[in-house]
């Protein structure tokens, strides 16, 4: 993965935390004594997703961007509990290791429920939130194209065999094809270059708790119940209006729960809203962080 092109797009120094013998990769950019901004990615992305935000924000803040286990440059163990609870525990371990407080939490996709899971367990550590297209509450029906990726056998062939999830996302999740050059597409899918390396991509889809008896359902219900405690926190919502998965119904639910949140909807942006609108996002984020 360490090609000259990727290094140009992703010019950051890697750090690893040992989690029971597995390497958990994260970026740690900016002054160590500056206020902390923690950015959590979703599926099937990795810390690469935030590459446009890291340089400008790290001039004034300490920016921490982990790769969830099985994603990006983190290890991809085959015998591992790739569950929401475990991903939250990994974030807990990292932020405890770094001894971070007064955190601005930036979340997207699965990073939303993982981040809110951390926040509801450690509310005193959170200063404010930045929310991109995501959810942290019980989901309605998900798109059929995602649902069909869930089964072990058929979904495994699609997601792990044909790389249908990560491979197609680079075409479907952005509404600006000019942004998704061949080099950028290669950067997104570089960590997911084999059956084994796509295990977390598949496990994330399988861990969507659609059924009442899904083992992750109680974890999500607990997180949803804890969201109300943050109604007085500063919250910035920046939303891609052409998201095929987290559409405007999800935006409306965030706004219902947090009516005082500052909201910006980018009508031309897709699910990868940071990819599509980072030039507009950066000044809004900088102003929010400095207020």
Describe the model:
With 291 residues, the chain is α/β, with parallel strands linked by helices. The protein has one domain: Alpha/Beta hydrolase fold, catalytic domain (Rossmann fold, 3-Layer(aba) Sandwich), CATH 3.40.50.1820. The protein contains 12 helices and 8 strands. An 8-stranded mixed β-sheet has the order 1-2-4-3-5-6-7-8, with helices on both faces. Strand 1 and strand 2 form a beta hairpin. The radius of gyration is 17 Å and the shape is globular. The chain starts with a helix and ends with a helix.
Give the CATH class: Alpha Beta
Q: Which fold name fills CATH's third level, the topology?
A: Rossmann fold
Give the name of the CATH superfamily: Alpha/Beta hydrolase fold, catalytic domain
Question: How much helix is in the residues?
Answer: 25-40%
Arrangement of strands in the largest sheet: 1-2-4-3-5-6-7-8
Number of distinct helices: 12
Query: What is the CATH architecture descriptor?
Result: 3-Layer(aba) Sandwich
Low-confidence spans: pLDDT under 50, at least 5 residues?
none
Give the SSE order as H and E letters.
HEEEHEHEHEHHHHHHEHEH
Radius of gyration: 17 Å
What portion of the residues fall into strands of 2 or more residues?
Answer: 15-25%
């Amino acid at each position: 993965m360490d090609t000259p092109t990727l290094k140009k797009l992703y010019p950051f120094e890697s750090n690893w935390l040992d989690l029971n013998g597995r390497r958990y990769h994260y970026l740690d950019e900016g002054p160590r004594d500056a206020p902390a901004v923690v950015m959590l990615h979703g599926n099937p992305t990795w810390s690469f997703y935030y590459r446009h935000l890291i340089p400008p924000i790290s001039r004034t803040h300490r920016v921490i961007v982990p790769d969830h286990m099985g994603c990006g440059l983190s290890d991809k163990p085959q015998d591992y509990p790739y569950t929401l609870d475990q991903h939250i525990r990994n974030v807990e371990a990292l932020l405890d290791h770094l001894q971070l407080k007064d955190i601005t939490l930036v979340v997207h996709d699965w990073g939303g429920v993982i981040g809110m899971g951390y926040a509801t367990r450690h509310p005193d550590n959170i200063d404010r939130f930045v929310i991109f297209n995501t959810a942290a509450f019980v989901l309605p029906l998900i798109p059929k194209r995602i649902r069909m990726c869930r089964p072990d056998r058929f979904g495994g062939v699609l997601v792990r065999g044909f790389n249908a999830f990560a491979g197609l996302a680079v075409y479907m999740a952005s509404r600006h094809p000019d942004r998704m050059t061949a080099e950028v597409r290669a950067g997104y899918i570089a960590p997911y270059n084999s059956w084994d390396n796509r295990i977390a991509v598949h496990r994330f889809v399988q861990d969507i708790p659609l059924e009442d008896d899904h083992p992750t359902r109680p974890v999500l219900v607990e997180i949803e119940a804890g969201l109300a405690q943050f109604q007085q926190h500063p919250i910035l919502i920046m939303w891609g209006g052409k998201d095929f998965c987290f559409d405007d119904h999800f935006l409306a639910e965030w706004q219902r729960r947090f009516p005082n949140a500052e909201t910006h909807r980018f009508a031309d942006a897709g699910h990868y809203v940071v990819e599509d609108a980072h030039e507009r996002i950066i000044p809004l984020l900088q102003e929010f962080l400095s207020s």
